[in-house]
Write a structure and sequence with these properties.
This protein is mainly alpha-helical and 115 residues long. It is 52% helix and 9% strand. It has three helices and four strands, in the order αββββαα. A two-stranded antiparallel ribbon has the order 1-4. It has a two-stranded antiparallel sheet with strand order 2-3. Helix 2 packs across helix 3. The relative contact order is 0.07.
């Protein structure tokens, strides 16, 4: 009986340690591999959970204010504006990384004559 209780306690602790939790701060950035959205499972994902709806709206408002949302024409919703901004930032980071990798390839010294 003690052995069964120990196994149950161990499984409970393991399950609690792996369960997703609500962020204690405004938001968090987490590994989202295996996340399911509208019935689709994404094997490779990043998730940004917010503490609550107010924290999400505050972030959207701050992002919009900081990135000239008022002058966007046509003006999308703040959420669409923020998602487009995140996609643009991710694309810029990927392009910069690829450019840096190409520069390293092009500037590699010829060492074919060395032993």
């Amino acid at each position: 009986m003690k052995k069964l209780l120990f196994v149950f306690a161990l499984l409970s602790i393991t399950a609690l340690a792996q369960a997703p939790s609500i962020p204690t701060r405004a938001f968090d950035v987490r590994n989202g591999n295996g996340v399911i959205d509208a019935g689709t499972t994404y094997p490779a994902a990043i998730v940004i959970p917010f503490k609550d709806a107010a924290a999400k709206q505050k972030w959207l408002d701050d992002y919009a204010d900081n990135n000239n949302w008022e002058n966007a024409n046509p003006r999308p919703t703040k959420q669409a504006f923020a998602l487009d901004g995140l996609k643009l930032w991710m694309r810029q980071q990927a392009e910069a990384g690829r450019e840096q990798a190409q520069t390293k390839v092009r500037t590699k010294p010829d060492t074919s004559d060395l032993p």
